């Protein structure tokens, strides 16, 4: 029955990670309209910018459709940004790319401090949008990505079901995420809202910086400080791998229920082997196309 539930939850969450677009109007015409109208677009260049730009999830899911869009629309596309977590270099890259006046820019909104750089792009009349994580306080033209509040809701629902399946009337859970990212703030809020009044308490919200090594060390510290921890929710793509690694080293696989986000095809095996209760899959191909 439990394996059937896990399988059902896995499939349901793939659908339940609802895709949503929120946009703000602009009087500036987007040069992308040229591509749609069939004009000559061969000299137009669009730049996707992120820190940790070679993150396995990006390489597997986001980059291929970005490059395909370039081919289909007859435009140049390029991937830019530091390959590590380096916010200062990320901001510098945004400013440098927009100064070169590309036809458009896509920015992954990892941190609110990116807003000023995005506003400079808009001031320079470079159409700029955000994807995956938003910068709602910036002047970006639009955002395209998942409804992260619902991601938090769905992870909480699985945690509740897993606790009930173990006969636990109460529990202690923790979250790992990129703490300041707009999308993960929303996810943690959804998670907390659903858990209210259930007897499952959130003991801490930890920042893993979007790195699996940090997620592993934070999880190890969590287990040491909270030996009665019953669940962990991971909200960035690297959280889950780090959580599983730490639980394996502590011989606590199955004792602490894990919900996580997609990472690589290999990571999906953790659902089959029982290391992870559920993995949420997003329609990431739509983010960059």
Short description:
This protein is 44% helix and 19% strand.
What features would you describe in this structure?
Helix content is 44%, strand content 19%. The chain contains eleven helices and eleven strands. The protein has helices spanning 2-16, 32-37, 56-73, 87-99, 115-123, 148-165, 182-195, 212-225, 239-249, 269-272, 285-288, and strands at residues 19-23, 45-49, 76-80, 104-107, 128-131, 142-146, 171-177, 200-207, 231-234, 257-261, 278-280. The strands form two sheets. It has a six-stranded mixed beta sheet with strand order 1-6-5-4-2-3, with helices on both faces. Strands 8-7-9-10-11 form a five-stranded parallel beta sheet, sandwiched between helices. Helix 1 runs antiparallel to helix 6, helix 6 packs parallel to helix 7 and helix 8 packs across helix 9. Residues 1-37 have low confidence and may be disordered.
Q: Describe the biggest sheet? A: 6 strands, mixed
Strand order of the largest sheet: 1-6-5-4-2-3
The total domain count is: 2
Intertermini distance: 39 Å
CATH superfamily of the largest domain: Response regulator
Overall mean pLDDT: 88
Provide the low-confidence segments as ranges: 1-37
CATH architecture of the largest domain: 3-Layer(aba) Sandwich
What is the CA-atom radius of gyration, in angstroms? Answer: 20 Å
CATH topology of the largest domain: the name is Rossmann fold
Q: Which structural class fits the helix and strand makeup? A: alpha/beta
Morphology call: elongated
Strand content: 15-25%
Number of strands: 11
């Amino acid at each position: 029955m439990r394996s059937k539930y896990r399988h059902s939850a896995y499939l349901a969450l793939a659908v339940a990670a609802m895709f949503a677009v929120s946009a703000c109007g602009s009087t500036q015409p987007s040069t992308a309209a040229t591509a749609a109208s069939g004009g000559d677009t061969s000299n137009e260049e669009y730049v996707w910018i992120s820190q940790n730009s070679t993150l396995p999830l990006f390489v597997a899911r986001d980059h291929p459709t970005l490059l395909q869009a370039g081919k289909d629309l007859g435009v140049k596309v390029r991937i830019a940004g530091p390959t590590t977590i380096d916010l200062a270099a990320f901001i510098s890259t945004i400013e440098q790319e927009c100064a070169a006046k590309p036809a458009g820019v896509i920015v992954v909104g990892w941190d609110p401090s990116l807003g000023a750089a995005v506003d400079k792009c808009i001031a320079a009349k470079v159409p700029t949008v955000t994807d995956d994580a938003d910068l709602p306080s910036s002047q970006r033209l639009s955002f395209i990505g998942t409804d992260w509040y619902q991601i938090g809701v769905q992870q909480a629902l699985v945690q509740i079901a897993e606790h009930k399946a173990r006969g636990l009337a109460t529990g202690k859970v923790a979250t790992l995420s990129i703490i300041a990212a707009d999308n993960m703030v929303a996810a943690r809020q959804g998670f907390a809202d659903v858990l209210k009044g259930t007897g499952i308490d959130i003991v801490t919200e930890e920042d893993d910086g979007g790195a699996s090594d940090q997620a592993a060390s934070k999880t190890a510290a969590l287990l040491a400080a909270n030996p009665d921890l019953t669940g962990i929710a991971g909200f960035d793509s690297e959280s889950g791998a780090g959580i599983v690694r730490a639980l394996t080293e502590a011989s606590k696989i199955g004792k602490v229920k894990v919900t996580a986000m997609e990472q690589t095809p290999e990571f999906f095996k953790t659902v089959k082997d029982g290391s992870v209760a559920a993995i949420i899959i997003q329609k990431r191909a739509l983010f960059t196309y």
